Amino acid sequence: MRAQFVLSEIGVGLRRNLTMTFAVVVSVALSLALFGGSLLMSDQVSTMKGYWYDKVNVSIFLCNKSDAESDPNCAKGAVTDDQKGQIKADLEKMSVVDTVTYESQDEAYKHYKEQFGDSPLASSLTPDQMQESYRIKLKDPEKYQVIATAFDGRDGVQSVQDQKGLLDNLFGLLEGMNIAALAMMALMLVVALMLIVNTVRVSAFSRRRETGIMRLVGASGFYIQAPFIMEAAVAGLIGGTLACAFLVLGRYFIIDNGLALSEKLSLINFIGWDAVLTKLPLILATSLLMPALAAFFALRKYLKV
């Protein structure tokens, strides 16, 4: 009987405040969709870091004859065979180095033509203008500075470049977008909580006569509060379900089909469905507990039971 009463009161409350309930559902759905999206973005950045940082190289570019005439770092002339041998030997002794690969001028020219053959500059370049280099794969990509300190400024070395620096700019942009999504999520969450509190108070005010009678006949505080709390929880759960649907559809249409980024951007290792599905229970639990707790604390002060 009591359960039937509580359920009937939930239905009455949701119908009486249909407009505000709709607003609660929409705000909860958007805020939790942004919350889930920011979690997935964080996972995507971590996945990309793990994938690309494992592939980045540190490049030591060696001086050629052209550099000797124009680059202050190569003022002592083009790199000699002895200098190249010493650089390679020193690299192989370093504990942070995994592998060392030498690229000749002819190989550098060939790779340049493959990547930038359509460039107007490509037709004017010759192999002797390209730079020899050592490509170093580190055991830990964060140890780039060890290589830079040891070889930057050495005779025969034009520059030391870390590909990780280029990736850091990309990851910095992605993390900035993630922070913006979190800020928007926080704003939407505040709006949702305010709507929940106002909806519960309006519902309680519209039924103040019933709650007054229930107090007089000795109903417990929880029994009086339960319909209002569950109204908020049901509205929140509907919003959470919509947020889960947004995430699933977003993953499907943006990555798999529709935009099909997984096919167009094959170099990016996108997160899988497992990452999405593991976030859904958290979103549903949040959508249920957050409105219920907000309603509980609002009612404690408003109903004074």
Can you describe what's shown?
The protein folds into 2 domains: 3-52 and 168-303, no CATH class; 57-162, Alpha-Beta Plaits. The radius of gyration is 31 Å and the shape is elongated. The chain is 70% helix and 8% strand. The chain is built from 11 helices and 4 strands. It has a 4-stranded antiparallel beta sheet with strand order 2-3-1-4. With 305 residues, the protein is of the alpha+beta class. The longest helix is centred in the middle third of the chain and has 44 residues, at 163-206. It starts with a helix and ends with a helix. The model has no long low-confidence stretch (mean pLDDT 80). It has helices at residues 2-16, 18-53, 65-70, 81-93, 105-116, 144-151, 163-206, 208-216, 221-256, 261-264, 273-303; strands at residues 58-62, 97-103, 133-138, 157-162.
Order of adjacent strands in the largest pleated sheet: 2-3-1-4
Question: What class, by secondary structure content?
Answer: alpha+beta
| Mean of pLDDT | 80
The radius of gyration is 31 Å
Low-confidence stretches: none
Short description:
The chain has 305 residues and is of the alpha+beta class.
